[in-house]
User: What shape does this take?
Amino acid sequence: MTRLPLRFAIGEARFLTVAEAGPADAASLRSHARQVARESDFLNAGPGERVLTLQAQVAFLRRLRTNHTGFVLKGTIGGRLVAVLSLVRPSQPRLSHRSEFGLTVRAAHWGQGIGRRMGEAAIALAAQHGLRKLNLRVRADNRRAIELYRTLGFVQEGRSPRSLCVRGRFFAEVMMGLCLN
Assistant: This one.
């Protein structure tokens, strides 16, 4: 059984701590979302396009815990937030066996295995929460993310052309899924 927090060696003398985010983390999660939106065009929202108010972020985190509709994991190095992974489960009974998987890692920490560690922890926790299917969407030209998701066991299930428009240019999205036992 996976128990949080988890701690992983990242490079020499640095450790990634993976823990569940709660309402007290709302401000740092908002700050993280703003920062990663500035660092990458691969996300669904760019700078200033979609950041919850502090009150809405707190309410969202409370709702996840109260209704058991998912969780948010935070990845920290030396107490500094570097990654966030969310699993949000629909409330409808016919859909409640699955969850939407979303991962962001600060650009300064790309390529260090943080996304893989966060993903492994989330998948183990998802199975413990009774989830049977994880879904995600990723921009089709985001090769590094697609490869990461493949190493975690996700498979491509579809492709949606012209799904995102970034600065007037259209991009396809790949839909990926992971079936859990």
The chain has a mean pLDDT of 95. The chain is about 30% helix and 35% strand.
